[in-house]
Sequence to fold (429 residues):
Amino acid sequence: MRILVVGSGGREHALCWKIAASPLCDKLYCAPGNAGIARQAECVPIGVEEFDKLVAFATGNAIDLVVVGPEAPLVKGLADRMDAAGIAVFGPSMKAAEIEGSKGFMKDLCAKYRIPTARYRRFTNPVGAKAFARTLPIPVVIKADGLAAGKGVVIAASHEEADAAIEDMMLRRQFGQAGDSVVVEEFLVGEELSFFALCDGETALAMASAQDHKQVGDGDTGPNTGGMGAYSPAPVATPEIERRIMDEIVQPAIAGLKAEGRPFKGVLFAGIMVTAEGPKLIEFNARFGDPECEVLCLRLMSDLVPALLACTDGTLKNFALRWYPETALAVVMATKGYPGAVQNGSVIRNLPETETAEDRIVFHCGTRRNAKGEIEAHGGRVLAVSALGRNVREAQAKAYQLVDTIDWPEGFCRRDIGWRAIAREETRA
Fold:
């Protein structure tokens, strides 16, 4: 098979690494890719939103399967374009991807199909948003309705802070059009996890759970980011919790989207809060998480390609996935200044050039090669240093050992990825 992966981040590097290992994959391309992905795939200089060029490349190179990594091209209809060209594509249609493209649509779907989630209202004017926010206890959650690269969420510690967040989004347009409307919702108390399920429009197949660290600083402090690290499985995701997530959240969403004429084909990513009452939905995403994808791919024993194909042709009910029992953990190394403005172009030295160890790997999230052949940082999140271990403590130790061999003075990382799970392990011991 000839396969094209669309994207340039750590998620796409992990997907390329896993797809390249499949005996079904004869030729792998990635558009646009990055310096790490170039080890597994031929990178082609086409942007993720250059739809005409992507379709032309796929048709001109006899691509059998397109795998779309990021959310933005899905929300804008890349899967529809590939489907119209007769090319199998892993990723939901534009209508189905609205489950991530509009938080308001997602919350309305939850209300209609009785999916447990936080109490909320959606607003197109700041006055109403502020008034409703003041009816909710502190903290209160303010979300830009549209896509904001994982950063359009504010957990306000006071009603004044909620007012400021609403003004930033709606009046100062901090996130552009994404803030034309906002969702104001109650804060859910509990432990958060990420849950993934493959979907073919009708059937949903549970994958695995993970937990990520969204805040930039140790101890879960500072502003939210796109993710500073992750591990899988999530200890809080007991078999009973996973059963309830599938029965009460994932299956109703897939059935609801089908009933709305928006069958969902791809991977459904459910952000879950495990509360005292049970699992409740925080939000849905229409693609793999990053850095969660990196740890999922490390743990996945099964060949990924047949599962992706099953999502495209409606045969997922015949599938099962096998997982390594070990824990996978990823530490994100980011450019200093992230999640604010960063300076591109710093050189990263002493990176492993090949995947020599089976239990650890550096996935590239934002890199490129300069004219001298050196690896440069290009973006906020740059590397996902990942490892497998018998438990979270061992996986963490292996990942940080690898982090400490990388020579990159302009980068930084959190030093406590997995802390919550390690505390739970030590309590059990």
